[in-house]
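1st attempt posting a full record on here, be nice pls
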Amino acid sequence: MSDSELTYWIAFTTLLRNRLPIQREIWNHYESIESAWNSLREEGMQEALDRAKKEVAFIHKHGIEVITLRDDNYPFRLRECADAPLVLYVKGKINLNEGKFLSIVGTRGASERGKDLTRKLVLDLSHKVDNLTIVSGLAYGIDVAAHKAALEAGLPTIIVPGHGLDRIYPLPNRQVAVEALKNGGLVTEYPSETEPEGFHFVERDRIIAALSDATVVVESKARGGSLITASNAFDYNRSVFAFPGRPEDINSQGCNHLIRDQKAALIENADDLINAMMWDTKVSGVQLAMAELEEGIDPLAIVLLQHLRGKDEDIHINQLAMDVDSSYQDIVAQLTLLEMMGYVRAIPGGFYHVIK
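the predicted structure (as tokens):
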């Protein structure tokens, strides 16, 4: 796309920022965005063009990609929605059309139980489902827990902020966003200098829902942004799931209400989600072990890999030495090999985590 065309796209969507239906109505009548722009008789058009030229310079400087509704790589799930934005600003290594996409959302004031549920869900899914991307909004609580779990599991993760890509909010979660750029990235409909206002987060919640095949609400109060995301997903005819909780638990009220009102299906673990979505699971540990064994991998490595896969949590190397009949030195050597091959990851404290 030429800089001239890009300028018109940005100016058009910025000038008509709060009038998305009008944007689409005008845009649908013209073959080019320049023609659509020239059809306008709005105040502030020159200012919008000047601002758009500044945005183009910012985009080039910071390696941001602009995807329009007319581009082939516009996310097809979002394209299906009547309120899809005409322009997306994207930064990172992302294919928005490949694989399975799952949004995980919840309250900012998440409990330790909620964070643990989020981490376990993502890690279990990473072991059992291929080509999975986790989508959320980087907010405190469940959102950032989902991103962190995806990064830990080696899964791509997409952050959908409620502002432009010249900042990160909330700032304490900046490092998570930086890590996400290595395997995933950020997607927003807002140009730079867009402040993180409350109504922007309400608007962005529809993007989180629309990018995904399904939405999971882990914890939610009776009212909150995660319920807006769930409602959007429900309206888009996407699958919605929620973890149940005790009636007296404030953080579970929203989830319980979604289930009660039949707007979300109850899940307790990754298998419930996989079965409901009818997702294919990865080849079994035994089958994979046999294939790896045929390729000449040490049998001890196979034993260790199967043992790690059979556990619901990370295992300390001392526990492995007790469980597996082999010397400590041989176990360390084979774990090192498995880590080099990308099957396991060493975690500080002497623990090992299965990646695949």
